[in-house]
Amino acid sequence: MKPLIAPSILASDFANLQKEVEMLNQSEADYIHVDIMDGVFVPNISFGIPVTEAIHKHAKKPMDVHLMIVRPENYLEAFRKAGAEILTVHLEACPHLHRTLQAIKQMGAKAGVAINPHTSVTLLAEIIEEVDLVCVMSVNPGFGGQKFIENTYSKVSRLKDLIISKNSKTLIEVDGGVNLTNAPLLFQAGADVLVAGSFVFNSADPIQIISQLKESV
């Protein structure tokens, strides 16, 4: 199985957003990764519901919406209506994670959980069977273009072991600093979905880079 590729629209040219989305439509990308930042949970602000709706208007690929915000449960319905097919919340932001995952699934979306670099995968043991996707942050969330954290390989491997031990079908997504050097190693460790932002959009040929990531295994 080839990895699923989810280019992060956060790294795109916002002045030409429609053009960037149409480029992703023509590429081998599997998802469009949409990073929502509130300036509270992470030290940056990206965009919100109206821009998500605008992306969805032109997107022909499923929207993978990553909520890096406090109280995400208050915004699930709004982002679902804005076009999210995958809704990922942070474990660190959800005191009632099981309830939040149930709410996402009741809306007909896939439920994801993201974990920061310092968060242990063991904290997912009691919930992993309820999760469609775990987003392992391989940089500290908040900004694009950061250096990949090398400990991510072993973290993904431990998470894969947990998923197998629970007989779960959860996908592992890795977000941050992904490139052609670490992509095959991440896949070998157990990753299923690779998020790439700056590496895709800052390249001379984003479509070719997406194809190369897809074939990197």
Automatic annotation (TrEMBL):
Chemical reaction(s) catalysed: D-ribulose 5-phosphate = D-xylulose 5-phosphate
Record carries keyword Metal-binding: yes
InterPro entries, alphabetized: Aldolase_TIM, Ribul_P_3_epim, Ribul_P_3_epim-like, RibuloseP-bd_barrel
Superkingdom assignment: Bacteria
Pfam families found in the cross-reference section: Ribul_P_3_epim
Cofactor binding annotation: Binds 1 divalent metal cation per subunit.
Keywords assigned by UniProt, alphabetized: Carbohydrate metabolism, Isomerase, Metal-binding
CDD domains per the UniProt record, alphabetical: RPE (cd00429)
Cofactor annotation: Co(2+); a divalent metal cation; Mn(2+); Fe(2+)
Isomerase in keyword set: yes
Pathway linked to the protein: Carbohydrate degradation
Binding site for substrate: S8, H66, G142, F143, G144, G145, D175, G176, G177, G197, S198
Residues the entry annotates as binding a divalent metal cation: H33, D35, H66, D175
Entry annotation: catalytic residues: D35, D175
EC number in record: 5.1.3.1
Enzyme class: isomerase
Family: Belongs to the ribulose-phosphate 3-epimerase family.
Function: Catalyzes the reversible epimerization of D-ribulose 5-phosphate to D-xylulose 5-phosphate.
NCBIfam families registered for this protein in UniProt: PRK05581.1-4, rpe
Name the UniProt record assigns to this protein: Ribulose-phosphate 3-epimerase
Organism for this UniProt entry: Algoriphagus taiwanensis
Taxonomic path: Bacteria, Pseudomonadati, Bacteroidota, Cytophagia, Cytophagales
